Amino acid sequence: MLLLGLLPLMLLRGCGCQAADAPLDVTAEFSVRMYHQLQILGGEENIIFSPLGVELALGMVELGARGSSLEEIRQALGYSNLRQDEEFSLMSNLTRALSVDTYVVRLVNSLFLQTGVRFNKDFLQLMKILFRAEVETVDFSESAAVSEHINSWVENHTESKIHNLVSADDFSSATKIMLVNAMYFRGSWKNQFRPENTRTFSFTKDDGSEVQTLMMYQQGEFYYGEFSDGTTEAGGVYQVLEMLYEGEDMSMMIVLPRQEVPLASLEPIIKAQLLEEWANNVKRQKVEIYLPRFKVEQKMDLKETLQQLGIKNIFTKDADLSAMTAETEDGQNLFIGKVVQKACLEVTEEGAEGAAGSGMIALTRTLVLYPQVMADHPFFFIIRNRKTGSILFMGRVMTPEVIEPFDDNFDM
Ligand SMILES: *[C@@H]1O[C@H](CO)[C@@H](O)[C@H](O)[C@H]1NC(C)=O
Ligand SMILES: *[C@@H]1O[C@H](CO)[C@@H](O)[C@H](O)[C@H]1NC(C)=O
């Protein structure tokens, strides 16, 4: 019934006759709650995950879910205020918004299903249309072969950036469905850093220890603001810097506590509403930026986290995923065994060539006239689509790319 209900909606969508107003991703609340869960588990480690990836992966499950399996997902993701099925149109729009030439997003969504289980044709069809998702059948009892196959598939779809997404012990003969979600992003800064301005610099971790890292530098016009939650919880004022990627659809927001304040004391105040507040209140102005090069990568089994956020039913024998299977298929006892996500992000100067727009370095100044964002200690970041509000990545850098100290010391 849900599947039928969807069709008219899609026909409307299909005309593509006008540039629609931005659909607004409604899942920020869920994303932030998820971050806090990961933070509890994450100790002192870097974190990176893709809220949008999780949203879409859950959307794929939701499409095949019924009853409380369906309701829990709607509730947790914040779709309760949407009309029934409206979220699929939304997700389809969010997926489409990623296909822009100025940056590279490799979003891999795939369902691998057990050979022999007959799946509903409409379900498979909608998976393709709404999520551009591939559905493939495999024999999970051949766990080594399956993991090799899935890993090769993911590599092929992420420009070889994401390896070893799954391992053989992720499966057993009881596995009937595996949901795979991987996201790789590479954008060029609108204002690129000049590689010749990158220096060795020390980065002070939250525990007070220091590591050497490659610190990029530039000054230029950026969106910037100083915020305070009005209490001393976050250690008073913290900085928010928004750096646009080429094309200006995407940006990275960096949230940096004061030097002497650990990120751990800023993290608890992060709320969905605050993300919006930051985005709406940063102002374009001249800023001086010191940002380490970093690469963060994380593989997560999201099952426990999702359960903590109220999505439980789909992982149990009570799961109702009946809309996935053909009507003739009886009592499949389908449930989700695992949800694995791997996210990967590289932040670099991005392009020595064509960096003409950024020739503003002026080390001869003696006074610091502009606000300075010195990310030489842990910070929080998000990469979001400024048009749709969807969050591609959320995470934190506790340790940047560590290098062996150079002999020469540069004074900045
Ligand atoms: C998705 O986009 C279409 C047209 O581009 C628009 O009509 C529709 O309202 C959007 N859906 C949502 C939920 O925003
Ligand atoms: C990935 O690409 C390689 C080389 O093109 C190909 O041999 C392999 O079959 C592909 N793997 C999958 C799972 O598509």
UniProtKB/TrEMBL annotation:
Keywords carried by this UniProt record: Glycoprotein, Protease inhibitor, Secreted, Serine protease inhibitor, Signal
Locations listed in the record: Secreted
Top-level taxon of origin: Eukaryota
Leader peptide range in chain numbering: 1-17
Any one GO MF annotation of this record: serine-type endopeptidase inhibitor activity
CC per GO annotation: extracellular space
Domain annotation Serpin: ranges: 32-400
Pfam families hit by this protein: Serpin
Family to which this protein belongs: Belongs to the serpin family.
Protein name listed in UniProt: Neuroserpin Peptidase inhibitor 12
Organism whose genome encodes this protein: Triplophysa tibetana
